[in-house]
Amino acid sequence: MKKLSIHLLSLLFLVVGPAWSQDAPQLQLPRVTLSAGMHLIHAQVAATPQERAVGLMFRKEMPVNEGMLFAFEQASEQCFWMKNTLLPLTAAFVTDDGTIVNLADMQPQSLVSHCSTKPVRFVLEMNKGWFDKRGLKAGSKLSGPPFTR
Questions:
Q1: For residues 56 and 44, what is the distance between their CA atoms, to the nearest angstrom?
Q2: pLDDT higher than threshold 90 for residue 65
Q3: Most-buried pick from 18, 67, 92, 128 (CB within 10 A)?
Q4: CA distance linking residue 15 with residue 42, whole number of Å
Q5: Which secondary-structure segment (H or E) carries 126?
Q6: β-strand 120-127 against 66-76: which pairing, if any?
């Protein structure tokens, strides 16, 4: 019985352990190139629950045209906060066809929740002000492999 308990505890640590020990930025996620008109975006893709949970946490800097695309299995209201996130970001809530539904400026280290105004499958986080500086707003379209049917 003791051996079984130790085995189960070890298994639990293997499954949950990475979530406990995550205190560094995730930099090795798959990447995709998106475009917003003439502007290129180099985005890491967070597609698993663990990748989405960590997101851009612990990053101290991010290049101007880089971001993170959060991809969900199905469209629903998506809400984001900034726990352990050190950079000010803007989140674009995006439909399957690449249309930006709404944008939300988010402050570092905040637990304030920012949500999509409609169900979406994608959220693109960029440095705060990136969308505004390029005149992108609700109704603007992004293009790239995730938005191609």
A1: 10
A2: yes
A3: 92
A4: 30
A5: strand 120-127
A6: antiparallel
For the stretch 5-49, pLDDT in tens is: 334 334 334 444 444 446 889 999 999 999 999 999 999 999 999
Paired residues of 69 in beta bridges: 45, 124
- C-alpha torsion angle, residues 13, 51, 29, 114 (rounded to 10): -160
- Residue 148: what pLDDT? 81
Q: Is 45 exposed, middle or buried (0-12, 13-18, 19+ CB in 10 A)?
A: middle
Which two three-digit tokens encode residue 114?
């920012």
Q: How far apart are CA 84 and CA 56, in angstroms?
A: 9
Q: Residue 41 carries which DSSP code?
A: E
pTM of the model: 0.85
CA–CA gap between residue 145 and residue 121 (Å, rounded): 14
